[in-house]
Specification:
The chain has eleven helices and no strands. The protein is mainly α and 258 residues long. Helix 5 runs parallel beside helix 7.
Length: 258
């Protein structure tokens, strides 16, 4: 992989991981345009590790509170992570190519667009995430598990799930990104382990480090931007990007151009 390719993928990951437009879908589409580099799966996970750092920086006070005073939320995060583990491990082991399918990404971008439109009409309730019941955390976790499909926005689907079970708007956003921490951390650790076992050159380490740094920096910007738009109840505006892009990708696929 060339430096310019890494920069492009890192920029996409850093911006699209938190905005409700699906980083996995965008990476699958751009990866196909770049010729699907064989390291793309490892690269994607490392870039996710960079955006994990963004969550830790933006939400460090909330995370510290979880460890000190809001420990009840920790089991909720564990429960919410179970569905993505049950879905993600088998997919990685037996059906990983599906995660790079551009036709699927295009179709799922249309689903994300529909979810974002519906988000406008699901304002949420008055529930705080620290007072959730276990089944409510599990429901949000199921929405996160669905987002393993390319084109389904993890942030969009989990925020939508949070509002459905009655979370306040800001609490749905906060729990969505707290829930991302164990999922991204687990996937990153597994991928780093595989890379170490397979062997990796110094040049590859440098490229991965550059990508992670770029996705980290842009992730902070994108996460704060999402919080800004969420506070103003305008997340449905991102449907105007996901819908047309999904149709374009489907059209390019059947035209043999993607």
């Amino acid at each position: 992989m060339q430096l310019i390719e890494m920069i492009v993928l890192a920029v996409i990951q850093g911006i699209a991981e938190f905005l409700p437009i699906s980083s996995s879908g965008h990476l699958a589409i751009v990866g196909a345009m770049l010729g699907q580099p064989k390291e793309s799966a490892a690269v994607e996970i490392i870039l996710h590790g960079g955006t994990l750092g963004s969550i830790l920086v933006v939400y460090w006070r909330r995370i510290l509170a979880l460890l000190i005073s809001d420990r009840r939320v920790i089991p909720m995060l564990v429960i919410g992570t179970i569905p993505v583990v049950l879905v993600g491990l088998p997919v990685k082991a037996f059906a990983e190519p599906i995660l790079k399918n551009t036709l699927l990404a295009g179709c799922m971008l249309l689903v994300t667009s529909s979810v974002l439109v519906m988000l406008k009409y699901v304002p949420g309730g008055g529930l705080q995430y620290a007072r959730m019941r276990w089944w409510q955390a599990l429901v949000i976790g199921c929405f996160q598990a669905v987002a393993i499909l390319p084109g389904i926005s993890r942030s969009g689907s989990t925020i939508f799930g949070g509002r459905l079970i009655g979370l306040r708007g800001p609490d749905a956003v906060t729990f969505s990104f707290l829930l991302a921490i164990p999922a991204i951390l687990g996937a990153t650790v597994l991928e780093v382990k595989d890379l170490v076992e397979e062997g990796i050159s110094g040049e590859e380490v440098t490229l991965l480090a550059i990508g992670a740094l770029i996705s980290f920096a842009l992730g902070i910007f994108a996460l704060r931007w999402l919080m800004y738009w969420s506070d103003r109840d305008r997340l449905h505006w991102f449907a105007l990007w996901c819908g047309p892009l999904g149709l374009l990708v489907i059209g390019l696929h059947f035209a043999g151009m993607l």
